[in-house]
Amino acid sequence: QAFPLPSLPRRQPTVLVACGPAQNGAIGLVCARHLRSFDYEPTIFYPKRSPDPLHRDFTTQCEKMDIPFLSYLPTEVQLINDAYNAVVDAVLGAEAEVAEGTEPCAAILATLKHVRIPIVSLDVPSGWAAEAGGSGDISPDVLVSLAAPKEVARRFQGRRHFLAGRFVPEELQRKFGISPRQYPGSDCVVAL
Asked: What pTM, to 2 d.p., does this model score?
């Protein structure tokens, strides 16, 4: 639902997935794998690969699915706008406050803030303070909150907000006061 195939105007639904080195980057790798399974043409930019075994496994899975990896991100934004229909922002997540000013994350965010194609941010838009403060430099069109919307979602001004994560156990829902969402049928994503 967050990537409706008919809404992409070009013949091939190409998506650039920008991944950071931490947890959100791993989620981006999983996203790219799912996009490929649903007939998208993802390309991954993952400049600082995590040594974590799970991240390495996700990388290997993407490689085995013939998902290309870019060796560099073009700084000429028009090249990105022309080559892709959307960008998935999986650079920084809720845990990444310190990393946003460091490379390669800072350079990625500097480029993403100028793209004109839709940006889909996973969990927390990169560069935004997760709990308090103002929004960052990028302005995503779509936000896909994972498990539950974070406080930062209150500042989201994009077109669509989705919740992904039908997997939150009832005990955690009670503990953190998360209202259960009604997911249609067997869907794992619901529009908010």
From this structure: 0.87
**What CATH code is carried by the domain that includes residue 96?**
3.40.50.10260
In whole angstroms, give the CA distance from residue 1 to residue 37: 14
Name the least confident of 2-6, 58-62, 103-107.
2-6
The answer to the question of residue 4 being in a domain is: no
Nearest alpha carbon to residue 28 among 4, 47, 13, 11? 47
List the structure tokens of 159.
Answer: 């077109």
CA 66, 103, 15, 50 torsion-angle sign? positive
How far apart CA 128 and CA 187 sit, in angstroms, is 28
More confidently predicted of 113 and 4: 113
Helix (H) or strand (E) holding 175: helix 170-176
